[in-house]
Write a structure and sequence with these properties.
Layout: H1 3-35, H2 40-49, H3 53-64, H4 69-79, H5 82-91, H6 99-107, H7 111-121, H8 128-152, H9 166-178, H10 182-199, H11 206-236
Helix pairs in contact: 1-3, 1-8, 2-8, 3-4, 5-7, 6-8, 10-11
Length: 237
């Protein structure tokens, strides 16, 4: 197998679990978007130009509620701020890559592609080429699925089959796969507590970002504290 074929094969193979999730989720988004008044072309353009599942769901929900354009823009921008954290974590593996390739790669960074790419990059056996194949395989699946949902939405009653729960279900699955130890579980629970508490005093979706940052900061501080404590015990012995 040639090097190019190997890169494509491995990238697609790593992307297929994401694609399996994107098919029902994308279809659900297409249905909700159709119910909100968007046509297949508009759904296609949103998936192509935005390509951010949670933001697209939020934008469609706000459109359906008659929210102002600026409110939609600010809300989706705030929700997408998490991409700064994901991009920062990935950037250390692509220091020598060209800006053109990085631009192509950054377009395809999502919660799912980040989780898969990051875990594989840590092994040292993954590179930008394979990451690009993974990102764009997932991207094409998302676009096709959302457009299919847009066409099929006219035949599906609003709220049928639990479609409204598709996005929360996806994030719960992503969270479960990231719980590799007690410290990860602690940070997840802490983020949930912060999010619920802040939602009672803050309007909009800003509490999601604030809760994530607070929980991640607490997790980092505790991790360093226990590392120092372990190192001190080792030295004492």
């Amino acid at each position: 197998m040639s090097k190019l074929k190997s890169i494509v094969f491995e990238g697609v193979a790593a992307a297929w679990p994401i694609c399996l999730g994107y098919i029902p989720l994308g279809f659900a988004f297409g249905v909700l978007a159709q119910k909100a008044g968007l046509g297949p072309v508009e759904i296609f353009l949103m998936s192509l130009l935005v390509f951010a599942g949670s933001s697209q769901f939020i934008a469609v929900s706000m459109l359906d509620c008659g929210a102002a354009l600026m409110s939609i823009i600010l809300t989706t921008f705030t929700v997408n701020l998490r991409h700064l954290l994901m991009s920062s974590a990935l950037a250390v593996y692509f220091k020598k890559s060209s800006r053109k390739k990085l631009c192509l790669f950054s377009y395809g960074v999502t919660d799912e592609s980040f989780a898969v790419n990051y875990s594989k990059l840590k092994t040292g056996k993954w590179d930008l080429g394979r990451s690009l194949v993974l990102n764009y395989t997932a991207n094409m699946t998302w676009i096709v699925s959302t457009v299919a949902g847009g066409f099929g939405g006219q035949f599906i009653p609003a709220g049928a089959f639990g479609i409204d729960y598709a996005l929360p279900a996806m994030f719960i699955c992503l969270l479960v796969f990231q719980l590799n130890g007690l410290k990860y579980l602690f940070v997840a629970l802490l983020a949930g507590i912060f999010a619920v508490s802040l939602s009672l005093v803050l309007t909009g979706n800003m509490y999601v970002v604030i809760a994530s940052m607070l929980a991640a900061t607490c997790g980092t501080v505790l991790h360093r504290f226990f590392e120092k404590l372990s190192s001190k015990r080792t030295n004492d012995e």
